[in-house]
Structure formats: C-alpha cells, structure tokens
Fold this protein.
Amino acid sequence: MQVLGAAAEFERALIRERTKAGLASARAKGRVGGNPGLRTKDPAALRKVRLARQDGYMERLSETAQDWVPHVRRLRPDMAWEDVLRIINGPLPHDRHWTQSRLLRAVKAYVRDGFLPDEVLGRAGRRETDDRLPAIVAAIKGSDPEITLQAICDRLESMRERTPRGRTSWQPSSVKMLLERAEKLGLLRSAH
C-alpha cells in the first residue's frame, strides 16, 4: 500500500510539473488563461459572473431557509437580532450556526427578492416598561451599596434577565438608567 501511495504521489507531482510547464510555455507565446471578458473588465461579462454568484448564493440559502426564515418572519422586528440568532442557532449543530452578519446578509437578500417583508429589517422596538427591572436592580444595589455597574450587569446576565430592549447582554449605561428610574420610583434611596 505504501509503494502504491508513493507511486500515486509521484504521478501527481509529475502532472503538476507538466501543467506548470504548459502554462509557462503558453505565457511565453503571449497566450493568457482565464475569461477574456473578465480580463478586459467587460461590463456584460462582469454582470454575468455577478448574477451567477447571486444565483448560487440564493440556492445555498434556500437549502437552509427552513432553519431561519420562519423565525425571522415571526420574531422580527419585535425581538433584537442577537436574540433571534440565539433562537435560530439553538437546535442547529455547532457547525451550522449562523453569525449575526451572515444572517443579516441572508435576510437582506430575501427582502430584496421579495421572500420576506421589509418590516423584518426594522429596528427592534423598546419593550413595554414596568417596575420589575428597576426593582431587581434596586434590590441588587441595596444588598451591596458599593457594587459597580459592571458587577450589576454580570449579576443580571447570570440571572438570565433581559435588558429593557430584550437583549441578553447588559451594558453599564442600561443599569445606570434603571437605577435612576428605581430612585424616581422610590425603590432606592438616593446616593447623594
């Protein structure tokens, strides 16, 4: 088996060398390979290649559409993209997970071709406000008055609490806003 493998490897090397020699000979005679229309940047040839790439991309998208289109149609724009992405990736094997930029590109292509409504690309709206989040933040701050905004963010994420816009990752500015609301609601004594 090793001898046959070595012979096959040797043959492959010979083919590679012959190909390189043939290309060099053609170049020396003034012939250049490739699509002549693309080499001269002919608009018709460029458009044809672009359309072929787009068709191939849309075909690949249609193979996975059942994984993401129903979720996007149902959840957008009511839910933030990162949460929609988490829901889409949940049941998929790790090697088929979507990134946010890849999902946005696919959704834009489907909207452009009329498979999804324009509304799915709209900005996610604010959630209805209530006193629950300010009360939680006030309770965390009340239990440890020296706690930092980032530590409160970490605590909220570990509790799997969502931000007022429905996201899963917290920012100190959101916590600060909730602390100010809690103060106005009388849930937290002023630090002044």
